[in-house]
Amino acid sequence: MSRISIAGLGVSGSFLAYLLARKGFKVEGYDLARRYFKPCGDAMSVKELTRRVVKATGSELAQARRFSIKVEGEEIAYLDLKPSPWVMVDKGKLVGALREMAEAEGASLKYGKRELRTVTVDARGPFAGRAGEQVNAISILARTRWEPGEVSLDLTVSRRGTFWIFPHDEDGRVVNLGVGFDRYVKPGVLRQIALRYFTRKLGRFEELRSGVAPILIWSPVRLRNGPLLVGEASGLVGRLNGEGNRMALYSAAALADALARGYPDAEKVLEVYRERTMRFVNEVRTSLLLLDLVGRFPVPLIKEAMKAAPDGLWESWLRTELTLERLLSLLPEALRSTALSAFGRVPGQPRA
Ligand SMILES: Cc1cc2nc3c(=O)[nH]c(=O)nc-3n(C[C@H](O)[C@H](O)[C@H](O)COP(=O)(O)OP(=O)(O)OC[C@H]3O[C@@H](n4cnc5c(N)ncnc54)[C@H](O)[C@@H]3O)c2cc1C
């Protein structure tokens, strides 16, 4: 029987363990902790696969329907979106249920301070990254009063970061507050920045839980063998918004298919895996390009471009449908030609 060992049983590793065990692989998995916890905004974009997984794990907390997009605190767009593009999830419950489902299919999962002798798949998320590739972000769960179903995203162009307020229940009593920048900030300083900002926005709130965790913003996308990488470990995470939950599930599904079709032919496995994840790789590259653009142009120009952006652009972004081509078609002409002359070509298309 084909044996697969997985290091890291978070979102991608636990789902992969389940899918492979179902396909008849002998799966061995390992994680540092039995109870999954990692600070996160807990938002998951709603797509066919994510909807199915959230339903199967019973992990939905709330739906995000209204979005206030701000630049440096000033609201520039307000969107009321139906159907809801994001669902807020209890990630501990989602991962816990996926682990149980994997074990029910015969996977052997172990926890604690030991390592696997051989690792076929590295699913350790941002902990698989190298020094210099990670930044950090803080998430605070807080009791307060908030408009149910509403999301606030405040983009700070000058400091290249985003402050978020996400609903964490359907009643507007618990919210997930957080911030991340494009560079490493000491956890204590990040916490001070967050507390100052959210106290100004919300007044007093009761902190229920908080934590800082790494996120791979400056890592290249790595889809390689020895070991195979999946989820955030492979660099599949949005560079502007730190979105990694959806890609963790989709890349796990892609890798399970690739292993089922190609194993033990490593080249074949990689070929299928790359083909199946191509659109996520392109999405990540677009977000990296946008992050780079924000740094190359004067802050006032970027702010003006954001303010001038049509609602369609923000909706595409929130629905994770913003391809580079769509972005360029929606940006004002002046910025489009500046962007094209700065980069010379649209990535993915041959140089002239
Ligand atoms: C503050 C913050 C907010 C975020 N908000 C969002 C959001 O709202 N929406 C979104 O989509 N994404 C968000 N993300 C990103 C998202 O959390 C990750 O991209 C996603 O969890 C990646 O899933 P994964 O399975 O690849 O890794 P993880 O879910 O991180 O799982 C990695 C697993 O590896 C285990 N591990 C670590 N080291 C070892 C080791 N040495 N041996 C064995 N196991 C190990 C860990 O215990 C963990 O269980 C956020 C990230 C941060 C830090």
Topology at a glance:
Elements: E1 3-7, H1 11-22, E2 26-31, E3 43-45, H2 48-57, E4 60-64, E5 66-71, E6 74-80, E7 86-89, H3 91-104, E8 108-111, E9 121-122, E10 134-143, E11 150-156, E12 161-167, E13 174-181, H4 187-202, E14 206-216, E15 228-229, H5 245-262, H6 266-296, H7 299-308, H8 311-318, H9 324-330, H10 333-343
Parallel strand pairs: 1-2, 1-9, 2-8, 5-11, 9-15
Antiparallel strand pairs: 3-7, 4-7, 5-6, 10-13, 10-14, 11-12, 12-13
Helix pairs in contact: 1-3, 1-5, 2-3, 5-6
Bound molecules: flavin-adenine dinucleotide.
The site of flavin-adenine dinucleotide has 40 residues, from helix 1, strand 2, strand 3, strand 10 and strand 14.
Search tags:
352 residues; alpha/beta; FAD/NAD(P)-binding domain; disordered C terminus; binds flavin-adenine dinucleotide
Structure, described:
This protein is an alpha/beta fold and 352 residues long. It has ten helices and 15 strands. The protein has a seven-stranded mixed β-sheet, with helices on both faces. Helix 1 runs parallel beside helix 3 (91-104). The longest helix has 31 residues, at 266-296. Mean pLDDT is 92; it is low at 346-352. It binds flavin-adenine dinucleotide.
- Arrangement of strands in the largest sheet: 6-5-11-12-13-10-14
What is the CATH fold-level name? Answer: FAD/NAD(P)-binding domain
Structural class by SSE content: alpha/beta
* Biggest sheet record: 7 strands, mixed
